[in-house]
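re: that chain from earlier
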Amino acid sequence: MDQDLGKHDAGWDGAVTAAEPSGLWGLMKEGFASSSALAQAKADAGSSELVKAVVAEYETSEGRSAVQEALRKRFAGAKPGDAVQRSLDNLREVSAILATKAPGDAPAFKAWLSSISQKVAEASSEGGFLGIGGVQVSEAEKATLADISKALGTSA
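^ sequence. v structure.
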């Protein structure tokens, strides 16, 4: 099951990052938020077995290589708007796989994906200057979070 998701695991958080590019520092914060979410899921006794299996896959060198390759293929030549749409398409595919192969695990897994997106959106303020001012979650990110909910079938 997790291998089916492994083909689609790249870019789960890419839609939020691409929705409102926030420079190098913001990109680093958003990447850290995503990585932290993976570590947190591993340590959380309440995480579903499917979430833990996907996190374990990321921890292997083969899993990381597969993710890097999938990212290269999925986002080759993509502009930010394309990256958002490709990420949303990916999430729709994940949702369909879950509905077919793991309907019992689907709600928890989708909630986990949504929480990663929310953490990435909140990781860096947008619209400020040198970290001063701006908003925690921009309008573009809020719209993308709503689109993510729709793509996962969890509504916003």
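The CA atoms of residues 13 and 67 lie 13 Å apart.
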